[in-house]
Design goal:
The structure holds two protein chains of two kinds. Chain A is α/β, with parallel strands linked by helices. Chain A is built from eight helices and six strands. In chain A, helix 2 runs antiparallel to helix 8 and helix 6 packs antiparallel against helix 7. Chain B is 67% helix and 0% strand. The chains are: A alpha/beta, B mainly alpha. The interface between A and B is large, with 37 and 53 residues.
Chain lengths: 382, 180
């Protein structure tokens, strides 16, 4: 410490020595108070610290745990789900899957539509007015081999299939005709054919086919052999329950009509009663006619299978590669990461929303601090 | 002149700088903090409360105290300064509310600063402003050097030096007036 540090005291030696000789001494009670107060504050401090140490890791563990649970639930044990909307097929552009990739993955991708989770698969059943939703047992899970496609024959079902077959450019026209012939040979017919090709033969042919449901399985197998099967989806809709309901309804109406007819033959009826029964009889007959018509529609729907066939020279599949080829652990981690990212987005959103308020708070804090400093300065100059 | 701002050797181990035990700090600096607060507030009861509050605050943030950034005494005085400012603010509010000074001039005329002081010096100290008494306490009683005292006061070293000179000069003048 330099001597200049104390130069301000020069000339005031007597004053300084008197002040230093008689300093105020802290009373013993204050010393005890300070020493006793320390452990209490230590406990308070440790509680706060413990709270922070518990809450922050708990929040992180909760976020990660929720992500893992979500990943576990959403990854599921089922494999890929592939859906092909035949109405869109002719207008679809080039897909990302290359022919070589398709070949390397087993030459053909055969998939059934899985609708165990979502109920009705979108698009496939949308053109039917039936309210019946296929159950998981009726749905075809992924089919590992081409010959494994089975359509139940002991129940009335409506089957929908869509196939995508790659053919050579030179064969597109011939294969289109062959497909019509195959369907014809099974008692079916081509509902519509749309053929688009360049003069080199490159292009696509879209065929909407109808085949008796008992022959649908064979027809699908044969149509798949027209070329390289790129994708195949088969789904069924059980109509048996609906048919049973309709038959039951028809029987009830018939019985009701018989009762009304007998009642009308009675001679004891008053004129008003006769009119009322006659109205009921007419209503029942009308309802019976409608129900019969509906049953005919159900039977017709169950009699044939709709097959959408896309013959293409591009040799690619329109396949939704959802989870395809990944293990469950991989899917779980991917889904968990996705969920964590979602949580991050939510937090970021909250920060963005709260940012103006935080800024206002910071501004208020700064103003208060500056005000305090100003008061300190005023105090010093007082 | 004793260099109180220099850290004791035990507090500064080679390599890693560790803070001394808090009980040792209390034992060593309680009197200094109390003196500073007595001079600043001119109220022994308030000084006791503020000293207790100061050490409570200090204990709460003791783990964050870094001896390399300053001596414990300077750090404690800064905390005491902050506590005293809060106390002055509260007092001002209370006085405004009550529209009267609880601490009247007669109270200041009594021996509030120290038992052994001459009555003239004690009264003269009471007539100084808190800011003037504060700088006297820091520089004369606690023997803080210029930079440390300036840090506690939150002003420049020059301003601190000027304030001390004015305070001592005024103290002498007040003593002369009292004698007359």
């Amino acid at each position: 410490m330099s001597a200049s540090d104390w130069s301000e005291l020069d000339g005031y030696e007597a004053l300084v020595s008197e002040l230093r000789a008689n300093p105020p001494v802290a009373p013993e009670r204050l010393r005890q108070r300070v020493l006793e107060g320390a452990p209490a504050t230590r406990r308070q401090r440790s509680r706060k610290r413990k709270l922070v140490l518990v809450v922050v890791p708990a929040a992180i563990v909760l976020a990660v745990g929720a992500a893992l649970v979500h990943g576990f639930v959403s990854s599921g044990s089922h494999r890929a789900q592939v859906y092909f909307n035949p109405r869109l097929a002719p207008t679809l552009g080039p897909a990302s899957t290359t022919p070589s990739a398709a070949k390397s993955s087993g030459k053909a991708l055969e998939r059934g539509v899985v609708h165990a989770k979502s109920g009705q698969p979108q698009g496939v059943f949308s053109r039917h007015d039936s309210a019946a939703v296929p159950s998981a047992a009726q749905a075809f899970e992924l089919l590992p081999a081409r010959g494994a496609v089975t359509i139940p024959r002991n129940r009335l079902v409506h089957a929908v299939a869509s196939l995508q077959v790659g053919v050579k450019s030179s064969n597109l026209s011939a294969k289109t005709n062959e497909a019509s012939q195959i369907v014809g040979s099974f008692g079916g017919y081509a509902q519509s054919v749309r053929y688009q090709a360049t003069h080199q033969g490159d292009g696509e042919a879209f065929l909407a086919l109808r085949v008796p449901v008992q022959n649908a399985q064979k027809a699908i197998a044969k149509l798949g052999n027209l070329g390289t099967l790129l994708s195949q989806q088969v789904s069924t809709q059980d109509l048996q329950a609906k048919l049973n309901d309709q038959n039951s309804g028809i029987g009830s109406l018939r019985r009701a009509i018989a009762v009304y007819e007998n009642a009308l033959q009675s001679t004891t009826l008053s004129a008003s009663e006769r009119v009322a029964i006659q109205i009921k009889l007419n209503n029942a007959r009308h309802a019976l006619a409608r129900l019969r018509h509906a049953r005919n529609g159900t039977l017709a729907s169950g009699a044939t299978a709709d097959i959408s066939l896309l013959l293409t020279t591009r040799g690619h599949a329109i396949v939704a590669p959802h989870h395809d080829g990944s293990t469950r652990i991989g899917r779980l981690l991917g889904s968990a990461a996705h969920f964590l990212a979602l949580e991050g987005i939510i937090v970021l959103y909250a920060v963005i929303v709260l940012a103006p308020f935080l800024l206002l708070g910071a501004l208020a804090w700064w103003i208060v601090r500056e005000r305090r400093r100003r008061e300190d300065r005023l105090l010093a100059s007082a | 002149m004793k260099a109180v701002n220099a850290l004791p050797a035990a507090v500064r181990p080679p390599g890693r700088v560790a803070a001394p035990p808090f009980a040792d700090v209390v034992a060593e600096h309680l009197d200094a903090v109390y003196r500073y607060l007595v001079y600043l507030t001119g109220d022994r009861a308030a000084a006791e409360d503020l000293a207790a509050e100061t050490f409570e605050r200090a204990f709460r943030s003791w783990r964050r105290f870094d001896p390399r950034r300053g001596a414990p005494r300077t750090w404690l005085c800064r905390i005491a300064h902050s506590a005293a400012v809060d106390w002055f603010r509260a007092e001002a509010r209370r006085q405004r509310r009550e529209e009267s000074y609880s601490r009247d001039e007669t109270a200041l005329e009594e021996s509030v600063f120290a038992e052994g002081l001459s009555p003239e010096l004690d009264r003269a100290l009471g007539r100084l402003t808190p800011a003037e008494r504060e700088v006297v306490a820091l520089r004369v009683l606690l023997e803080l050097d210029g930079p440390s005292a300036a840090r506690v006061l939150g002003i420049s070293e020059t301003a601190c030096s000027t304030r001390l000179s004015r305070a001592l000069k005024r103290l002498e003048e007040e003593m002369s007036d009292v004698r007359i």
